[in-house]
Fold this protein.
Amino acid sequence: MTKTVILASGNPGKLREFNILLQQVGFNVKPQSEFDVSNAEETGLSFIENAIIKARHACANTGHPAIADDSGIEVDALQGAPGIYSARYSGEGANDQTNNQKLLDALKDVPEKQRTARYQCLLVFMQHENDPTPIIAQGSWEGRILEKPMGDGGFGYDPIFWVPTHNCSSAQMSKEEKNRISHRAIAMQSLMQKIRGL
């Protein structure tokens, strides 16, 4: 039997990734936009706080279990920025291109060895709005920031995120490979193990 779970996001890239992975545990993932649910106000100061806020908001407005992720990129040379502000790093009307450009500008004079970074993903699964024990899973993916974009796959910071284990940017990887090793994949595998244990 398939169970409907709400994804507290309207991001089509995320929806595809979540559906591929969660079908394995009998979940049918629907975006909150299908239920006319607006985005929650992300007032948390950490990935985990924001993910809980988003999951609770989706549960409250749909009556279904919900899954939320808060993810972003942390750059060591920038003391972990953009971090929780990754999606809106370049300000009002931010998009992938303007965010990438701002990050490249911020690292203009930083040598290659000091451009270390990681993608972080925090996932929260809540059975209902007042769930006192949300399931939490975390995944990180180490790499470094390139000096210019490479590749045209993926989304977000993928074109400037170099994956040393694969000798290419995240945007140059196949979807299948990225879905296997990314921060979100690691967090999802962890989350799925915990959900199976429910």
Summary: The CA atoms of residues 113 and 144 lie 8 Å apart.
